[in-house]
Amino acid sequence: MAETRTEALHRNAEGLDIQAPEAILASLADAQVEAAKIVRNAIPSIAKAAEIIAGSLKGGGKLAYAAAGSSGLMALADALELPGTFGIRRDRIAILIAGGDEAFRTLAGGPEDDKEEAATAVANAGIGKGDCLIAISASGTTPYALRAIEEAARRGAATIGIANNRDSALLRLSGTAILLETPPEVIAGSTRMGAGTAQKIALNMLSTLAAIHLGHVHDGYMVNLMADNSKLRDRAARIVAAISGGSRDDAARLLEKSGGAVKTAILLAAGADSADTAQKILEEAGQKLRPALSALGHDPEKWRPLFGKDHARTKK
């Protein structure tokens, strides 16, 4: 097997084990920064992939992540955050990691070679037409990731591949290929480091842009968050207050009236006469807050503070 970029020796690795601790840490930190910068080169393909993901979710499809080892952990970290951050239903997200639940305890290497496990995982997740599967592999040759993307494509799903080696099998098999050509690792082959950092950044960018396409972000606010703990309930109130220009008490009352839905509460502040009306306006606006505000007669660029208008006040 020819040496790949992810297995090559880093230019600063010679004598690493006899360097001063500060020098070692400086090399590690610099390598992470260098890897992170590489993600910028992939922005066009990330943008294309995010649009595909948004289309699948908007059409009622699922988003699946398939990976092994460190790449699986990067996928897991991104996937598990989507419901709380963007309100994407948990049953619309599938996480396929080599070794299954046991991987969360041992992360054994053997399962990444199990092609049949990958095919079975895709089938059991019900991945097919209208869905989207992202497969991640630093080398781009991990059998589990390759088989998962083949099976997903065979079943009619859109496929996205993320790899850190150019011209790798995973990128060739993918409907949309995202190359993160990170430098060799300071510890050769330890792709939990630079390659993993780049993967995490790319996945975060993918899911965030997809959420923006779906209307789950307004300005810098996560307006579709799932407020299922005290911190997020407080954040929801702060978001409604900030966007509407009202007080935290006003925001809390509107959130109670909206059943905790941030966008609905904001539209109530903007003059919607009921939560049902606000939800109907949102549906007609494709779940996007800006056009929904326009439908209520507001200029989205000049509408704050809403609570300065009598029709938007919450009566005590």
If you had to describe this structure to a student in words, what would you say it looks like?
The protein has 316 residues and is an alpha/beta fold. 47% of the residues lie in helices and 9% in strands. It has 12 helices and 7 strands. The chain has helices spanning 21-38, 43-58, 69-86, 115-124, 143-154, 169-173, 194-213, 230-244, 248-258, 262-269, 275-284, 289-295, and strands spanning 63-67, 93-97, 132-137, 158-163, 176-179, 217-218, 221-222. The chain has a 5-stranded parallel β-sheet, with helices on both faces. The chain has a two-stranded antiparallel sheet with strand order 6-7. Helix 3 links the parallel strand 1 and strand 2. Helix 11 (275-284) packs across helix 12. The longest helix is centred in the middle third of the chain and has 20 residues, at 194-213. The chain is globular. The model is unreliable at 307-316 (pLDDT under 50).
